[in-house]
Amino acid sequence: MSKESYYSTPAQSPGQPPTGGVYPLKDQYGYGHVPSQYTDEHLEALQRKDTKLKKRIRILRIVSRICTAIFSTVVAVMMGMSIHKFSSTKNIYINGRTAWAKNTKLWPTVMLFSVAAVTVTFNLIILVAYLRSVKTANRVSTVSSIFGVLVFGGHVVVWVSAAALYRYGKDTNGVHNDLWGWSCSKGADKIQSTFHSVVNFDRLCTSSANAWYTSIAEACLEILSVVIYYLAYRRLKHKKKIEVARSIAPQSL
């Protein structure tokens, strides 16, 4: 060979190994060596971890949706019953008055009922989607990512605000003229015997208080849902590692 080539040195003959220990095509690991982080075994380990994360996230999501649906249903039913009781008795007069406070403030009860009803509807849609298929549920849940950052952020803000406003409405400036505040007030106690056949204030007071406690539990549950989002973020980063391993390992073998 008269001309130098990439695979030979001036002193070598065709068919002879290169001199001087120079092997241009040989990398630092040796021919065909696959770095340990790109082996099939490591790829399988990454996939197993991804499967565990996926299962954990799915279980937590289902449990969270079920608990949220239950809590929201409880609140919606209690608030719905309170609104119905007021609407059906507000025009009943005994001794020149109704069973309710003057200028009854209904918005705290309506607000909490509306928030609970929307939450129940949304979570039932996702749970029904889970019954059809996980993929469908994830797709619906992703629409929640638009209503998700809105649903997660929204749920937290809405439920914390709703619980706070409902409590605030109970005795604004010392005036008990909402359904919860009035039913627990001394004024309601004084007329209970007169309106015993119309409304049970003690029962309404207890129901309203329980609805508020449940709304607090719902708000806390929404805040704890951040754990699910953290695990989902971890899985997203983990899947990127798997993609890198898949793209490199086959080329190295």
From TrEMBL:
Residue spans crossing the bilayer: 62-86, 106-131, 143-166, 211-232
Ranges in coiled-coil conformation: none
Keyword terms of this UniProt record: Membrane, Transmembrane, Transmembrane helix
Top-rank taxon, per record: Eukaryota
Protein name as it appears in the record: MARVEL domain-containing protein
Provenance organism: Glutinoglossum americanum
